[in-house]
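Hey all, sorry for the wall of text incoming. These are the two entities for the joint prediction.
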Amino acid sequence: MAFLGTVRRGPALALAALLVLAAAAPAGLRAQTPEELEYQVKAAFLYNFTKFVEWPAEAFANERSPIVLCVAGEDRLGRSLEALVRGETVGGRSLVVDRAAGNYRACHLLFVGQSERERFSQVLDGVQGGDVLTVGEAPGFLEAGGLINFVMEKGKVRFAIHQAAAERSRLKISSKLMRLAINAREGAG
Amino acid sequence: MQALRDLPIRQKLVLIVGLATGGALLLASAGLVVSDLVRFRGEMVRDLTSLAEVIARNSTAALSFDDEAAAGETLSSLEASPPIDAAALYDEHGKRFASYVRKGKHAEFPGRPGPDGHLFAQGHLLLFRPVSLGGQRIGMVYLESNLEPMYDRLRVQAFTVFLVFCVSGAFAVLLSTRLQRLISRPILHLAAAAKAVSERRDYSIRAGKTSADELGLLVDAFNDMLGQIEARDLELQRAKEELEGRVAERTSELRQELGERRRAEQELAERNEELRQSNKELDDFAYIASHDLKEPLRGIHNFSVFLLEDYADKLDDEGRSKLETLTRLSRRMEALIDSLLHFSRVGRVDLAIDRVDLNEIVAEVLDSLDINRRELGVEVRIPRPLPAVRCDRARVGEIFYNLILNAMKYNDKAGKWVEIGWRGDRPPVFYVSDNGVGIPEKHLDSIFRIFKRLHGRDKFGGGTGAGLTIVKKIVERHNGKIWVESTPGDGAAFYFTLEKGA
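and here's what came out:
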């Protein structure tokens, strides 16, 4: 894990490093499958989402409470997410990864893996009414009530945002993030 | 520079004011423009920095989510900012992530982002700003702005300055044209007055004074000077007139004098002529008279002699005595007439001038006087030989004869002597001196008068009294002079020259 040292310096850098690795994976190094790379990018994106989203104050116990990142379903992110958020703070809050949360309502960001595609509504219903940024990676996630959904576009990780749901929630998603959503760019609003 | 120096003072003043104003204006304008440009540059940098800030802020998401398209879109929003020629976003590794080049422009992006800051280079303003997110640097924005706004500004400024320059320059020239009169007018007046004075020589002209400054002082001084010159001129004129008057007066006086003198000279000449004429007439008369008188005189003498010889016995002693007296008187009368004739001849007959050795003449004279010398017992002295001179030999012999004879005769001393000598003056002065009775001073002037005798008829041998008169006449005919010095009782000395004296 030679690049891990650099990862510490920042998520953007980490992302860039990942992209560099993805673009020209050196043959002699430990082989990284496209899938591994994809999940490394997704982990970076998840971390970066926290910077463009504001949670209501009630979502935290106090001013210093950490932002809790949860993963539902089969965890393909590996340890990369933990590596990314370790020691980092966003808006004065540290970040923690919770992979075994019983109740997702206590999460601030919930990544719903592909394995959960059959039970989207069940997971999403569980966090209904909570201030949870739900991120999926399977088609139909937004239709099921998710806020952000990863999409692969020309081999690159992109995302779509359910704008109406986002507006309904108490989360404030930065317009900058909104602009990057593929559905926003395609004129979906 | 000379041309400038020779400009009329009026134009010089306008030019000076114009140049000074223009120079100051130009400097001030240049200063303003430069400071404005400096300020404007600062503003440009600030504006570009703000723009870069906006781009950076708007690019955080695109950088975070590796969205080149979004980043490109953000950059292309710079289309609305005309001076931006090119822009780029670099990721945290310094790799160019997205870029923008304005249509029609060409840009070469730096391979790696520079440090945070700006740089004016190649007619562009280059600026790097970091892109930060949550306190972390996630990339760099690069903006490349052309300097068109500055050039526009410069053009506007230049135009404004030009306009201000023209307007204020015109104003300055207009103003100085009016104000220069303050200085130039008194000077021009002064110059005109000076010119008029020198041209017309009229020192009563005065320059007009218009101000109380240095020019006024100059005018005063000039007028004062003119006043002095005028006074002096008047004085000079007066002196000149006076002098002229005096000269005219003196000239007329002189002319009058000259006329008088000429008249006098003419009169004198006339009188001279008259005198010469009457002299000649007198000479002629004397000659004729004496010549004609001799004839009857000889008759009287002859008949008185006949009477004495033939009728002596018929007369008593008294009668004979009276006849003898008659004879003697007639003889004397004849001698007088002969002397007169001789004198007259000496005056009329031309001289026979030749070179003559005076020693010979004196020797001859002494020969003929040898009897007298022996009778009277006189010693003759000739201290040194006499010179030879040009003269009438016979006449000069007469001079020596008369003088030596006189010297021998009029002496009553025991040891008588006569000295004949000369002084080598120019002309030479001859003399005949003696130790005789001398001549009383009162007679010194009259001894040369004809028939003047100082002594009794028979004393010192008698004589007609014409000798010295004839001597004087001969000397004068030689253009010489004769004079006498004497101490009565001790002797006399006769001096004469035979040519015109100096």
